[in-house]
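Example for tutorial group B:
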């Protein structure tokens, strides 16, 4: 097996690096044609993960999701507790049971285990889907607010992924959170 060459940038940083390279090339090309840009490009960035934790909409969504899924979570816990008790009982009685009874109880434990796993997978999938729906709503509202902040602060580019380092004044996340919470 051939050794792979190390990448200079992680994949998630590549789009941001390409964007910055394109901005630099545009400025260089404009200078080369005698068209000096009026000002240096102003770039801002948003820490997207903070929006999903610190905004009021995110906190309200978390509370609503927890309330919506609480009954299913407790039902799943009860099902797993029942499975654990049934398994322990079967293991305790296994040596004393005759073969038909042992087979029947082993099948009951296996069926209950499959049902519990199926319900847990469905629960996780539904919870993940619901969380993504709420996050998409936050991102939709945030994109409108980002455009408003970019116009007010005269930003040329706003990044939200792949920011390796930025001057502290470039972070517009706090402004965005305040605007979304209004």
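The residue assignment follows.
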């Amino acid at each position: 097996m051939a050794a792979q060459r190390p990448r200079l940038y992680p994949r998630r940083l590549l789009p941001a690096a390409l964007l910055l390279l394109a901005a630099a090339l545009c400025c260089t090309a404009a200078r080369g044609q005698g068209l000096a840009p009026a000002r240096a490009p102003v770039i801002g960035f948003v820490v997207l993960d903070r929006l999903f934790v610190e905004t009021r909409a995110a906190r309200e969504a978390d509370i609503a999701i927890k309330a919506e899924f609480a009954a299913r979570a407790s039902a799943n816990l009860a099902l797993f507790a029942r499975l654990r008790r049934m398994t322990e009982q079967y293991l305790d009685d296994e040596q004393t049971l005759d073969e038909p009874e042992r087979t029947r109880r082993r099948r009951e434990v296996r069926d209950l285990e499959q049902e519990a796993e199926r319900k847990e997978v469905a629960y996780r999938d539904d919870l993940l889907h619901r969380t993504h729906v709420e996050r998409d709503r936050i991102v939709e509202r945030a994109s409108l607010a980002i455009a408003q902040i970019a116009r007010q602060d005269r930003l040329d580019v706003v990044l939200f992924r792949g920011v390796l380092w930025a001057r502290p004044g470039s972070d517009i996340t706090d402004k965005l959170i305040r605007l979304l919470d209004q």
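The longest strand covers residues 43-45. Compare this with the pattern of hydrophobic and polar residues in the output above.
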